[in-house]
Amino acid sequence: MHQICGEVGVDRREIVEVFRERLGEVIDRSGLSRSAFAGEIGHDRSTLSQLLSPEHVRLPRAETIAAIAEHAQVSVDWLLGLSQEGQLGADMLPQALELEIEAGGSSLADERLKRWHSEAAGYKIRYVPSSLPDLLKSEAVIRYEFQMQDSRMPKVRIEEAERRLAYSRRPETDMEVCSSVQSLAGFARGEGIWSGLPDTDRRDQIDRMIHTLDELYPTLRWFLFDGLKSYCVPMTIFGPLRAAVYIGDMYLVLNSTEHIRELTYRFDNLIRAAVVQPPDVIGQLAELRRAL
């Protein structure tokens, strides 16, 4: 157990406290008395009472933790506070790699993304978009991006962008976005995937971003890093709850506290490397707009 604490940088006392809380939770959920639950895991009531006592500052033996996890059908990581998800084995895998986006209307991915944003209310959202930030996109840009998909998809995406924008206007929201300065310049010049988007639509999009950033700052902060020096795959970190990495037509969902912490650290490094800070992004956009 000491090795676990050292590897992830978590204080031993914090792990003991979380373990005690979650042990109490699984006992309550089991519907058994403490004596009966203790018997199920091969211990007596006095041992269980000791584990639940706030004065007890040591974790039980690894075999005891494994027995509790097996009986309660939860993961050891969850018991120790190293994961936000409690399910075992086969239940964990679909959550880790699934959510293939279906063509057409509201897909399973869309519904889960909505739920994840809702569950993360009050936490900081960290976001690296695959193109422009969704909540800042105009209808013309969304229709352009999804023109090759099912005819209903642009409407779904427009509604989702409007919903996220409305949510971001709530005072308790807190979102940080990181993009490369080159990707933004490439959009303004109509390069790459944007080569078919008319100049007028690009101008309108930049105007929309200027207006919306001015409205939402500082609860929405957009950082621009140098893409020659830094790189990051598209992802969203929903506070301490989960992280979703976008890998094409699906999301890799990470629920492990350690993985979420590492991605958060990676995101924070992008912020440290930013060459354009949030208060200056509007000026950067205005300069790109004048060049069009």
Walk me through what this model shows.
By secondary structure, the protein is of the alpha+beta class. It folds into two domains: 2-82, 434 Repressor (Amino-terminal Domain) (Orthogonal Bundle); 95-291, Endonuclease, Chain A (2-Layer Sandwich). The chain has 14 helices and eight strands. It has helices at residues 2-8, 12-30, 34-40, 45-52, 62-72, 76-79, 89-96, 108-119, 139-145, 153-168, 181-189, 199-216, 257-272, 278-291, and strands at 97-98, 125-128, 175-180, 220-225, 235-238, 242-246, 251-254, 274-276. It has an eight-stranded mixed beta sheet with strand order 1-7-6-5-2-3-4-8, with helices on both faces. Strand 6 (242-246) and strand 7 form a beta hairpin. The longest helix has 19 residues, at 12-30. The model is unreliable at 1-10 and 88-106 (pLDDT under 50).
Q: Considering DSSP H and I runs of 4 or more, what fraction of the residues is helical?
A: 40-55%
The biggest beta sheet is recorded as: 8 strands, mixed
Strand content: 5-15%
First-residue to last-residue Cα separation: 60 Å
Q: How large is the radius of gyration?
A: 23 Å
How many helices does DSSP assign?
Answer: 14
**Domain module tally:** 2
H/E series: HHHHHHHEHEHHEHHEEEEHEH
CATH top level assignment of the largest domain: Alpha Beta
Low-confidence runs of at least 5 consecutive residues: 1-10, 88-106
Q: What overall form do the CA principal axes indicate? A: elongated
Overall CATH architecture of the largest domain: 2-Layer Sandwich
CATH fold topology of the largest domain: Endonuclease, Chain A
Classify the secondary structure makeup into a structural class. alpha+beta
Mean pLDDT rating: 84
Strand order of the largest sheet: 1-7-6-5-2-3-4-8
